[in-house]
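go over my protein:
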Amino acid sequence: MKSNRYPPGPNGVLLAGAAREFASERLAFITECRETYGDFVHFRLFNRHAYLLNDPDHVRFVLVEHPELFQKTPLLKKNTRRIIGNGLLTSEGEFHKRQRKLTQPAFHHQRINAYGEVMVDYTLQMLSDWESGERIDIHHAMMRLTMAIVARTLFNADVAQEAAALGEAITAGLHHVTRRTTQPLALPDWVPTRDNRTANRYIHLLNRTIDRIIAEHRSSGVDSGDLLTMLMQARDEDGGQMDDEQLRHEAMTIFIAGHETTANALTWALYLVAQHLDVERRLQAEVDALARSAPTIEDLSRLPYTEMIIKEAMRLYPPAWIVPRLAIANFELGGYHIRKNSVLFTSPYTMHRHPRYYEQPERFIPERWTSEMEKALPKYAYFPFGGGPRVCIGNGFALLEARLILATIAQRWQLVLESDPMPIPEPVITLRPKHGIWMRAQLRQTQAHLLTV
C-alpha cells in the first residue's frame, strides 16, 4: 500500500474542490490533470472524491474485470433518465442484463450487414440535394442523415418531417443533462424555470415521436424484422415482455444514441480529412478504385484506408469522451484504497492522446492504424465504445455506417473547410463541435457522372 492517502492531483478550493474547473473547462481540465499529475489523478468535486484513470490496466479493472463494483453516477443517471427513461444506458444490475439480452439480436452482424444498402441509399439522397459551391454545416447534415438511417433501419419509420425539431430537442436535452450533472445545486426539475420548461417541452416532443412510431407498429401488425418489432415480440426466460413504457425507454435510448455518436464521429472525420490534403487524396483514390457506382457491404474489404480514417478520427475526437462510474464498495487500485461513493473517470479523450501509447498523439495520422500497431497497442489504450458488459451495443452498426457514409461522400464530393474560427470541441454528453462545422461542397469533376448512374 502506498504511503500517500490519495494519488497526486489539483487541490482545488476549500468547499468545491475542482468542481468549477471541471464544469467549465472539462477537456482542458482532464488534459492538464494527465499531463501534470500522471496516470492516476485525485481531485474533489465538492464533498465527493474523484479519480481520473489514464492507465489501460486501470480502465480494464473498472469497465471489464470488476463491473460489479460500479454503477452509473447518480446525477448522470437521474438527469439522463429524464430524457430517455430507464433504458440500456441508465438501467443497472439484473434488469440491465435482461434488457441487453433482449436487444442484442438486433445487432447481430448478419442483421447489421442487411442495413448497409439503406445507409448508402439515404446518403445518396442527401448528396442529391447538394449543389456545387453550397455552404453546409456538416455537423447538422450528419445528424439529420444518421437520424434518418436509424429511424428506417431500426424502427422502419420515417422521421423526415420531424428531423429538424427532433435534432433541436436532442441538442437541448444533451445540454440540459450536462448542466444538471455539472451543477448539482441546480433547482429541482419541478421548479418552472426557463431551462426546466424548455426541457419539458422537448422531452414531450421526443416521447410523442417514439410513441407514434410504436403505435404505428402495433396498428400495422406487419413484422418487418426491425429492432422495434423484435423488442415488441421479445420474451425473457420467464415469458415476460416489455410494457409500452419500457419499450419507449429502450427505443428512445437507441434512437438518440444510435445516431448521435456516429454523426459526431463522421463530422470530425470529414473535418480532419479536409485539413489534410494528402489524406483526402488517398481516400479519393481508394473510393475511385471501386468498380461500381456506390460502395456496398462487399466493398468494405477494399476500403482499409477509409476505416483507418474513422479509427483515427475517433481517437482524437471520441464521441463518448468520458465514462464516469460510482464506486458502490471499497476496493484497492494502483496501491491506493478507494472508498465507496468515489467517482472514477475513464476518458477515451485523454487516453487516446497519451504519448506513451501514440507517437505524435495530437496529429491526425490515419496510417498509424496498421495491424501491427493495433496488436502492439495495450487493450484499453483505445476504447471509443467503452468496454466490458456495458460496451456500446451498436458499435458494429456505427462502424459500418461511418465507413459506408464516408466512402459515399468522398466518391462524389470534396468538402472544403470554411469554419472561422476553427471548430471548438464541446464536451456535453458526447463530443460535439460547439457551433457546427461549415464546409463548402464541391462536386468532384472526375466523378460527376456518378450523379446520373
